[in-house]
Protein: Cation:H+ antiporter
Amino acid sequence: MMLFLNVLLLLVGFVALIKGADFFVDGSSSLAKIFKVPGVIIGLTIVALGTSLPELAVSTSAALRGANEIAVSNVTGSNLFNILCVLGFCSLFHRVPVNSIILKRDFPVSIAVSLVALFASCSGVIFSGKLFGLKMADNAGLVSRWLGILLLVLFVSYIFCLIYDAKKNPVSEEETSKVYSLPKSILLIIIGVAMIIAGGQAVVNSARIIARTFGMTETLIGLTVVAIGTSLPELVTSIVAARKGEVDLAVGNVVGSNIFNLLFILGVSSTIHPVKVNAASVYDFGIMIIISILAWVFSITNKSVRRAEGIFMILTYAAITVFAILR
Structure:
């Protein structure tokens, strides 16, 4: 009986995620039209913030418990899923053009911030060569409180840059989607966020119980259910956006969420309590940076992410997950 209820809760959670994402995309794109803000800016800010709330909740909760080692794995795992699976699955439904602004500004920012966070926290073991002598669970570095504050300062600076750029270069876009009144647009965004968060929690919690019922270990549950579950909002929102033709919103959501995860979530977590980085997380950070560069190269060469590249991305994520489970 309990298994049946949890399967039912899982399905209800997915429905809430899908409908919530639908409301969120409609409200966000309408808001962009009202204020004549490019969809890419809305995707990089409001949508990215809303869909990253589950990761923020998980990392902040862990930090408050003083067990925030999960913060780094949560950020790297979510970012890998965003790049490989969210962009990958979007490209299966629709060729995903990548805005030139994202190519020139936001992709490089995401990669640069990843490098800063990695080397600022683990430069000792990386440059000394000691990393290869460590076991996966051994401590390799620390995201200090000062580094966390720096990440938050960079986050605020980045948001101000986005707002300044949007005001400096207002656009007049063709009305390709319905424009609601300002109150209704905001209401749709709020309802969408609420449904996304509730749906994400329902999916994660029910899937965890179902996994335990079938004898899956806590480690395997964390690597699969929790990591994927907290990134479901990005996946569903971007797929819905891509199917509605709001491709700038879809790509902006992915890159914006990654920057948000690195600067704000890791910044908040380490400011609350310094975050220990183990050897496994250093490797994950390295893989994340390589994958980010690869996705950037794909986007530059074709000015879009195509179906073949999307399939490659999805298969790469599957291989990385298998490696994480077996190591």
About this structure: The beta strands are 96-97, 139-143, 275-278, 304-305. The mean pLDDT is 80. Residues 2-169+179-326 form a domain with the A middle domain of Talin 1 fold (CATH 1.20.1420.30). The chain has one domain: 2-169+179-326.
